[in-house]
Design brief:
Elements lengths: L1 H58 L5 E4 L2 E8 H13 L1 H12 L2 E9 L3 E8 L6 E13 L4 E13 L1
Length: 163
C-alpha cells in the first residue's frame, strides 16, 4: 500500500514538473517572437538613420558646397563643382569603388536642377542586385551658377539600399 502511494506522489510530481516546463516553453516562444519584432523595428530604424546620415554627409561635402569669400553657404551647391565631381567619379571608377564607397556604401546620389531649366547630374551610384530595402530622401537645395552669378533651384536625391 505504501508503495502505491509513493508511486502516485511521484507521478503527481512528474506531472506538475511537465506542466511547469511546458508553460516555461510557451513563455520563451512568446518572448522570442516579441523580441524578433522589436529587433526588426530597430533594424528598420537604424536603416532610416543611415539614410539620413548619408544625406547629411552629401550636403556637407566640400567637393560640392558653394562658398563666397571662403565662407560656406548652407544648402548650396556650386554647379561647376557638381559637374566636375560627376565627371571625375564617372571617369575614375577606382575612386568611386574605394574612397566614396567608404562614405556612401550602396547608395545613389543625384542632383536635379528644376528651375529655370531641368538638368540632372548623377554624383554617385552603386547598387546591389540583392536589394531588400530602399530609403530615398529628397532635399531642396540652391544651385549656384558661377558663370552667370545666379542661384537656381534644385533637388538633392539620396537613395540608400540595404542588402
Amino acid at each position: 500500500m505504501k508503495n502505491k502511494k509513493s508511486q502516485i506522489k511521484m507521478f503527481e510530481t512528474i506531472a506538475v514538473l511537465l506542466i511547469f516546463f511546458v508553460l516555461i516553453g510557451f513563455g520563451l516562444i512568446f518572448y522570442g517572437r516579441i523580441q524578433a519584432g522589436s529587433f526588426q523595428e530597430k533594424q528598420e530604424e537604424n536603416f532610416e538613420l543611415k539614410a539620413i546620415q548619408t544625406a547629411q554627409l552629401v550636403s556637407f561635402l566640400p567637393e560640392l558646397q558653394c562658398s563666397s569669400n571662403n565662407i560656406i553657404v548652407d544648402d548650396c551647391f556650386d554647379i561647376l563643382k557638381v559637374e566636375a565631381l560627376s565627371e571625375f567619379i564617372e571617369q575614375n571608377p577606382n575612386i568611386r569603388n574605394e574612397y566614396y564607397y567608404d562614405l556612401f556604401g550602396f547608395s545613389s546620389i543625384s542632383i536635379e536642377q528644376v528651375y529655370p531649366s531641368v538638368v540632372s547630374w548623377s554624383i554617385y551610384e552603386r547598387t546591389t542586385e540583392r536589394t531588400k530595402a530602399k530609403s530615398s530622401i529628397m532635399i531642396p537645395v540652391s544651385l549656384y551658377n558661377a558663370s552667370s552669378r545666379a542661384y537656381n533651384f534644385g533637388i538633392l536625391t539620396v537613395a540608400v539600399y540595404r542588402k
